[in-house]
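How a chain folds remains the central question behind the approach discussed here. The record that follows shows the chain in one-letter code together with its fold in token form:
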Amino acid sequence: MTDITYGVDFGTSNSAIAIMKDGQETVLRGRSKEDKTESSNLFFPKWEMDVHYVGDEAITQYIESGMDGRLIQSIKSILPDTLFNFTSIHGKRYEIDDLVSLIIRHLKKKADDSINAEVTKAVFGRPAVFSDNPEEDRTAEQRLRAAALKAGFEEVHFQLEPIAAAFSYELRIDRPEIVLVADLGGGTSDFTIIMAGFAGSSLSAALPMGKNTFSKNARHPRDVEKISAQRGQ
């Protein structure tokens, strides 16, 4: 029996899914032939109970409805928020993993339909650091796992997104390198130093440098001045 695994990138702004079959990977198309992602949006129209739209269709329906309903964006950014328990939409309770599972189920169905099979194993990318708070970081991964299980996956694994990027890059180099991997996302920006191509292991070491450091400082000039002063610049 052919072993098939999905690779899922659930992002703050956009998401994507790839199929690994017989050693060959295929990233499914998103909005167009050139685009391999789909927006991570949900829309619950006010006039239709128990109906929701996912991705770009969510935006289309939201506009066509005259913005009459509940549009939810950037759901991934809520994953580490331990203060968020649930939200109520048209009288129905949704926890964060319920909302995320709707997007993942949409991606899974698209992939299942493309190969006429139901795949239950997946590797999910995750930021090097969901949050600098260890409890929040654990909570985010637990919620993402719960969402994947609710979406129909039975075997769920995680890979750090900068490590996944480094694996791809390592295939193209013929000598050891120390690499800075920058993952500039819609909600989190990770910067990781990785030793790639060194003898003894595929990726010898990975050092996460932090989450959102640059973007936060860039939004607050006084913080940039403070950091510069501390460094004597």
Q: What stands out?
A: Helices lie at 56-64, 96-115, 134-150, 161-170, 213-219, 221-230. The CA atoms of residues 41 and 186 lie 13 Å apart. The first helix runs from residue 56 to 64. Residues 176-230 form one domain.
